[in-house]
Amino acid sequence: MTIALKVHPSFFKEFATKTWVSPADVIKELIENAFDEDATKVLITILDDYSVAIEDNAGMDEIEIQKFLLLGSPHKKDDSISPKLRRVRTGRYGTGRLSFLTSFEKMKIRTRKGNYHKSFLIDTKSLDALFTGKSDLHETKEPGLSRDGTEIIVSDAKSLVDELRLIKEIRKLAVLRHPLFEVYIKKSTNFKEWNYSNAELIKVPEIQGHKIPLSLDNGNIVGEITVARRPLTEDEKGIAVMVGGHIVMRTLFGFDNKIPKVTGFVRCDSLTSRFADKSAIIEDKEYERFSSNLKKFINDTVIPSLSLYEDVLVTREESKIYKQIDKVLGQAVIETLEPYEEIEGYEIVETKKIVSKPSNKPSSLPAEDNLFDKSIDDEYKDITRNEIKRSRNTVSENGGNLQTATIADTTLPNYLSSEQDVENRNYENVTVTTQIRKPLIKKTFALKKIGYKIIPYEDETDSRYSFVSENVVFVNKANPTYKAESSRGDEFLLRHIMNIVAQAVAESRHPEGKEALELQNRLVSEAIRIHDTFLSKAP
Predict the structure, then answer these.
(1) What confidence score (pLDDT) does residue 443 get?
(2) Which of 308, 338, 366 finishes a domain?
(3) How many domains are there within the chain?
(4) In terms of pLDDT, which residue wins out, 152 or 89?
(5) Are 146 and 165 contained in the same domain?
(6) For residues 388 and 406, is the Cβ–Cβ distance under 8 A?
(7) What is the pLDDT of residue 76?
(8) What are phi and psi of 434, to 5 degrees?
(9) Residue 16: its pLDDT value, please?
(10) Which residue has the higher pLDDT, 49 or 69?
């Protein structure tokens, strides 16, 4: 009796349906395939029956079709650079074309390159014969494409295709950062070939913050680390590790508690991803060396930079609105909401001033000289003292310690001394350039007794209009809701922000949800009543 190793007829179907887990994974895989074949544009159309069309402008000829239909082909691994645009290909093993079986029953393909065109269908039945070595596909009789490109339609959906979730997942693709690659998406009742009407460009999220470029291990590891200005979402946290143009994982390399506001990417093509699951990595000796290099870079370069890059955007008009919220919402919650200023440091600024000096006494100083102007410097001394005093009072209420900055003394030249006898002398005006130390003030708004702060930020790639993190209410000025309310006038913006703050206060007291909503509504209603009463009494 011959001993033989066989493949069960169900193997390929089981493999395909348990490797990719959602419609988004399927479509992401097909987008990356288009990128690998030098497409510059991809159009995704979601139809009413949840079929999805993925079109690109990179067609296939007969040889490329044969490569496409050879499952497990190592051609992308062997030819890791695309022929035309010299891209690093994301694919390795030629199994992604089976991904549609996770969420769809059928995949129809039409392609054209020059005079060559082909149309055929792959479905679940096509896999039943694969254990024999090949499966004959059904060629469809329909007109060829009117352009060079490839059209893939996956149909008979097993689950609903959520457009918003799909966009969110596509934004994670590293290929979107390529300057010659664009992905568009639209919804439509009827499918029309290569029709961009009402299509939206999917933009790669750009997180604002301090950028730290890196190049390690003689250029084997390259990338960019971002210290974000705002707290990150769970999807944004961590450094994306790329292999062959594909993100295989996000990690903070064990520094999760130290660098929560760090994101970015690093690329290392010497790492190895798992066979079909490109979102996982093999932790071999090469990975250990890679990880050691990144940990050292984070510890030596990234962590020392964390405290230097926080930017708060508060306009004068918004400051007025916040002060109104101070009054009305503070009364409503029986708390005090008042402005709080922190001194971040000092800067040296120059100013010119005309002073008088005795003309009968020669001066060794030129007309344009650098000296400290006492009157102006005293002004900033007063500001600094007030801020230090305010900060000390605020901190002392919370039982904390306060470290104050030392204010340097200034020295006046003799001819400006008040003790000098200046009677019966002639004077002349002299223009002097004065250097002063000006404190750098960061404005926030603190819910003093509760321990909350309000900090506005501006990020168009962040869909949230507000969120709470570590007792800070962050308000996104770039959110369409914020912009719309702001354009309607200060009164509408005031009520919008008031609602956000009331929500944070309510949720802090009632995290279970229902009671929080009720409290929020009561707070907003009471605050508006107080505000309207205040306006009616105003002269």
Answers:
(1) 53
(2) 308
(3) 4
(4) 152
(5) yes
(6) no
(7) 66
(8) -105, 135
(9) 64
(10) 49
Question: Are the C-beta atoms of 338 and 448 separated by less than 8 Å?
Answer: yes
Residue 143 lies in a domain: yes
Residues present in the chain in total: 539
The CATH number of residue 46's host domain is 3.30.565.10
State whether 241 and 267 are in the same domain: yes
Residues 127-138: tens digit of each pLDDT: 777 767 777 888
376: domain range?
352-411+425-441
Same-domain check for residues 58 and 22: yes
Residues 107 and 128 in one domain: yes
Domain check: are 49 and 114 in the same one? yes
Instruction: Provide the token pair at 42.
Output: 């991809």
The domain boundary residue, chosen from 308, 338, 371: 308
Please tell me whether the overall predicted TM-score, pTM, comes out greater than 0.85 for this model: no
pLDDT, tens only, 250-299: 999 999 888 888 999 999 989 987 765 556 788 899 999 999 999 999 99
Strands (E), 78-202: 104-113, 116-123, 138-139, 149-157, 182-188, 200-201
Region 439-453 average pLDDT: 58
Is residue 324 a part of any domain in this protein?
no
- Selection from 60, 84, 69 nearest residue 148 by Cα: 60
Pairwise CA distance, residues 431 & 486, whole Å: 45
CA dihedral sign, ordered 382, 384, 386, 392: negative
pLDDT at 202: 94
Instruction: With beta carbons less than 8 A apart as the criterion, state whether 186 and 199 touch.
Output: yes
Distance CA 251, CA 239 (A): 5
Q: Which two tokens stand for residue 123?
A: 């479905």
pLDDT at 433 (0 to 100): 72
Q: What is the 3-state secondary structure (H, E, C) of 66-99?
A: HHHCCCCCCHHHHCCECCCCCCECCCCCCCHHHH
Query: Does residue 463 carry a pLDDT above 80?
Result: no
CB 167 within 8 A of CB 161: no
Q: State how far the Cα of 439 lies from the Cα of 405, in Å rounded to an integer.
A: 10
